[in-house]
Hints:
With 531 residues, the protein is an alpha/beta fold. It has two domains: 39-48 and 420-530, Immunoglobulin-like (Sandwich); 54-415, Glycosidases (TIM Barrel, Alpha-Beta Barrel). Helix content is 24%, strand content 26%. The protein has helices at residues 10-21, 88-95, 144-154, 169-180, 186-193, 220-232, 255-264, 295-305, 307-322, 356-371, 403-411, and strands spanning 3-6, 39-44, 58-60, 82-83, 86-87, 101-104, 128-130, 136-138, 157-162, 204-207, 244-251, 271-278, 329-337, 376-382, 392-395, 398-401, 418-420, 422-425, 428-431, 434-437, 439-445, 452-458, 465-472, 479-484, 504-506, 510-512, 515-520, 524-530. The strands form seven sheets. Strands 3-6-9-10-11-12-13-14 form an eight-stranded parallel β-barrel, surrounded by six helices. Strands 17-21-22-28-24-25 form a six-stranded antiparallel β-sheet, covered by helices on one side. A hairpin with a 2-residue loop joins strand 15 (392-395) and strand 16 (398-401). The radius of gyration is 23 Å and the shape is globular. The structure holds alpha-L-arabinofuranose. The site of alpha-L-arabinofuranose has 10 residues, from loops.
Amino acid sequence: MKRLIMPVAAALILSSIALARSQAPASGQAAPTSGAAAATATLRADRPGPVVNRNVYGHFAEHLGRGIYEGIWVGPSSPIPNTRGIRHDVLAALKQLNVPVLRWPGGCFADEYHWKDGIGPREKRPSMINTHWGGVVEDNSFGTHEFMDLVEQLGTDAYITGNVGSGTPQEMMEWVEYLTSDAVSPMANLRRQNGREQPWRVPYFGLGNEPWGCGGNMRPEYYADEYRKYNTFIKNYDRAKPIYRIAGGANDFNYAWTEVLMERVGRRMNAASLHYYTLPTGNWNRKGSATQFGEDQWFSTLSRTLRMDELITKHAAIMDKADPEKRIGLAIDEWGTWYDVEPGTQPGFLYQQSTMRDALVAALNFHIFHRHASRVVMTNIAQTINVLQAMILTDKEKMLRTPTYWVYEMFKVHQGGTFLPVDLQSPDYAFGAERIPAVSASATRSADGKAVHLSLTNATPGQTIPITVTLAGIAPASASARLLTAPAMQAHNTFAAPDTVKPVPFEGLRLAAGTLTLTLPAKSVVVVELR
Length: 531
Ligand code: AHR
């Protein structure tokens, strides 16, 4: 099929080509593959918006495939270096991302998980079958104490999802008591017997997962009642820091679910979740390969992932009606790409590679989340290690960082920053009859006020795009940038070549007279720091 860049205006193209020609390719910049239309933008530092909650950069690790077992937990007697069973290499890599929050134990697994099976001496813990994910034996060696140890070693916040689907209010109530009570009470005493004197801090608690599906196939009206009942028994043992309660929200375009939750649960929840996965084909039976794809699926993946904007806009509009003060948040606690599993791997383990395409997916979604910062309080990519759009892949003792990892690492500068609007005029990236903006941009001012970060993407696989950014309300003395790109759309890191896709310094910036100019390489993610 034919691919073309659609010009915004002829005059713009002429001036931008002149600009592009005047710039020699910088080190770390892919060689231009063809002439390009240009983008222009105004970074409105004079019109600050809401703070981008750092939890937008959150994670999700389920008992699924090799996500927990091998990915995080190798056990204290493993030859793989570890602290109390948690592997060092993975922990060190995750620490570089400043992971703000980690969701566990599921996913679908959460609504079959009985937490008391995962406490006490490991050799005495009962096993269960992980019915959702491969039918494998779950020996419960990674349970509450191991997860909270991971949270503390990583320096992150816990987001625990309780079992509404097959559990009871008593089971959930007791788990919260076990985790967070300092009293002399049965569950707090049990925790002490198991070696933990002090309660843990569990700031976020989910009341079930996907209640419309694997969490119980409920109608929204029924779930709303269940939520109200379970919620009653979640006690705030630390009254100064009440637990933030997240309701099982809608699946992608199910707006009726959000309507009912807002009407029947309302302020009893602090946030409602939203799940949306990006499939190249949109067909759950043949989703598409993670690495063997052409431009058709490159384009369809990026185009489908951009629908996140429409989803948030429409769910947020429903929430606005009942909650104009925006006290109830939207927590997109599962999102990312979902491909056919890697050939030869267990289908229930959802193991997939991550390419330059996934890097673009991550960056485009972050730009959308930033734009909706007033409502989006948290997101958790699915999933952190060895599952779906992972940051990290392991093969026994080996580990690699994916292109998605590098986007999280480059974008961590946006965590907790103040949203700054970017008025962008982008050329289109057209493929067949469809088109999406070729360029996406987002900016934040750092919490300490000392820097402004501007992230930019070029979604086209073969076109360099010059961009001129007018800086309004900021007069930086210096500009520096990092670039993530690769020669091929399918480029990815392997255990034999783990550094094929990684960020490099980007030196093709020009800062003069309140204007920043640069040329975005094809299929690239760039983060500029202005000081
Ligand atoms: O992330 C994989 C699965 O996708 C989760 O367990 C479930 O909540 C969703 O359907």
